[in-house]
Fold this sequence. Notes:
Blueprint: H1 5-18, H2 28-43, H3 53-76, H4 86-144, H5 155-203
Amino acid sequence: xxxxxxxxxxxxxxxxxxxxxxxxxxxxxxxxxxxxxxxxxxxxxxxxxxxxxxxxxxxxxxxxxxxxxxxxxxxxxxxxxxxxxxxxxxxxxxxxxxxxxxxxxxxxxxxxxxxxxxxxxxxxxxxxxxxxxxxxxxxxxxxxxxxxxxxxxxxxxxxxxxxxxxxxxxxxxxxxxxxxxxxxxxxxxxxxxxxxxxxxxxxx
Length: 204
């Protein structure tokens, strides 16, 4: 089917009346709205339509892009009196309402994502603190264990004992350092994610 100005005007009227922007993109509800618009166009008697939903959506997006480009060009002209057509008035109203709906959806989505990231960060910190707390309790328990009275060791036995004790302390110190590094890495990743969200919001 070849689109004419008459086809475009009827399509714009149907879109304004149906308000597809009231439903989120790629949802069943918005799809139903476009199906209804397509059915009414094909039932139109003043001009003949023979279209499918995909064709209607794609053509209206093209009309919307052309109108935005036209308005952008007109804004650069100074001292020129431009009279709007019925189509211009319709597209102006549709554009304003669509942009308002998109801005509202974007604000809600950003807030939901920020809340989700904040909850994830709090969960990471909680688990890290629990892990450190368990380690501290275990160390305290080990220190509280009574030391059995030992018989006098020979020189070689004493040296072996000291070596074992130093090795155990070194292993524990390495384990503590590894845990602290993991905690630091988790905190850095969380901060980087939050900073990325803020940058995206600032860009928009």
